Amino acid sequence: MLIIDNNSNDGTFSYIKNYLNLERISYINTNKNLGGAGGFQYGIKIALEKKYDYLWLMDDDSIPLKDSLLKLIDFAEKNPNYGFLCSRVIWKDGSLCKMNIPRTGLTTLLNTSDVDNKVPVLMGTFVSFFVSKKSY
After folding, report:
1. HEC secondary structure over 20-76
2. Using only C-alpha atoms, what is the Rg of the chain?
3. How many Cα atoms sit within 13 Å of 33 on the Cβ side?
4. 110-116 mean pLDDT
5. Pfam families from the entry (predicted)?
């Protein structure tokens, strides 16, 4: 796991420092805020160089559920013919985050009850964007 800290000042390092002694976790601070796109580009470049199997991009204010990554990997391994995966995005109160509803090409909108439904989408946002190395 590669964690890119885009020079945050919110205590991120203090929060994750106890996990950094694990071999499978790498932490890099950019030492300068590169902006959202710059931080993503920086992390993607390093992940490509290190030949990671998957990229899971998310904004700094995303709070994934504990099993989110496992569900994405499980789906990816069982369904290898995908371009990218994205998550259903909800607010803390459980309501659907409408600005992050993926475009589906369907004539109906996805709802909060669609938690376990998997539907093809045309685009996703960087709140939770998951891609396999076979796709890049």
Report:
1. CCCCCCEEEECCCCCHHHHHHHHHHHHHHHCCCCEEEECCCCCCCCCCHHHHHHHHH
2. 16
3. 6
4. 54
5. Glycos_transf_2
The answer to whether 18 and 43 are in contact (CB under 8 A) is no
Residue with tokens 């990671």: 52
pLDDT tens profile 20-66: 988 889 999 999 999 999 999 999 999 999 999 999 998 877 888 89
Handedness of CA 13, 14, 16, 17 (dihedral sign): positive
| Whether residue 45 sits in one domain with residue 88 | no
Tokens of 24: 């499978």
Domain limits for position 69:
57-136
Neighbours of 56 (CB within 10 A): 20
Q: Which residues of 69-102 are buried (b: 16+ CB within 10 A; e: fewer)?
A: beebbeebeeeeebebbbbbbeeeeeebeeebbb
Return phi, psi of residue 67, to 5°: -100, 10
Query: Are 78 and 133 members of one domain?
Result: yes
Both 37 and 89 in a single domain?
Answer: no
Token pair for 8: 């945050």
List the structure tokens of 76. 């990816």
